Amino acid sequence: MGIIANKIHQLNKWRMHKVSNRNFVIFLAFVVGIVGGIAASLLKGLTHSIASFLQDDIDWHYKYSIYLIFPLIGILLSVLYIRKILKGKKFEHGITPIIYAISRKSSRIEPHNIYSQIITAAFTVGFGGSSGLEAPIAHSGAAIGSNMGRLFGLSYKEVTMLLACGASAGISGAFNSL
Which of 41, 83, 160, 164 could form a disulfide with 107 if both were Cys (CB 3.0 to 4.6 A apart)? Predict the structure, then answer.
């Protein structure tokens, strides 16, 4: 076991003896909500930074004539990321895979979805693509909740609740709601 895995194992043993499961799940729901909100803020900031760079920071004569090409560049960067960085890991998008994960995969969402959804959505939307940020951040938040629950060995119902907390935190962060 690695050092981090060993520390998490020790923390999990300590919490099983000292903290009730209900209180621990409430604490994890709070943490998942905070991390999901931070992920939404990161996605929005990254997207706006890319769009600002392409629209405002570059000052050259042909900038407006290549606006038609920018969405293609964003999609190309996303595809290259999926093919070269993820290499064979299943990349799912939208809300349907979240529902499928709850019903058929014991609320298990792959850990790479935490950051992969953010990166590909920022490339696509930042370069002017017509997709939205809501589904990727919901998927990313759901992956945060799913993996946090599995990390501490929680039951299916508890992991599903954390998955829902993460998805709702991401969506509320995307819409600036409280």
Answer: 160
Instruction: Report the alpha-carbon distance of residue 137 to residue 95 in Å, rounded.
Output: 10
The most confident of 28-37, 65-74, 90-99, by mean pLDDT? 28-37
Note whether residue 141 is domain-resident. Answer: yes
Residues of the domain holding 21:
15-55+70-174
Assigned domain for 87 exists: yes
Q: Pick from 106, 100, 99: which is nearest to 155 by CA?
A: 106
**pLDDT above 60 for 1:** no
Residue 150 DSSP SS3: helix
Tokens encoding 63? 């900038």
Nearest Cα neighbor of 138 from 39, 45, 42 is 39
Is residue 143 a part of any domain in this protein?
yes
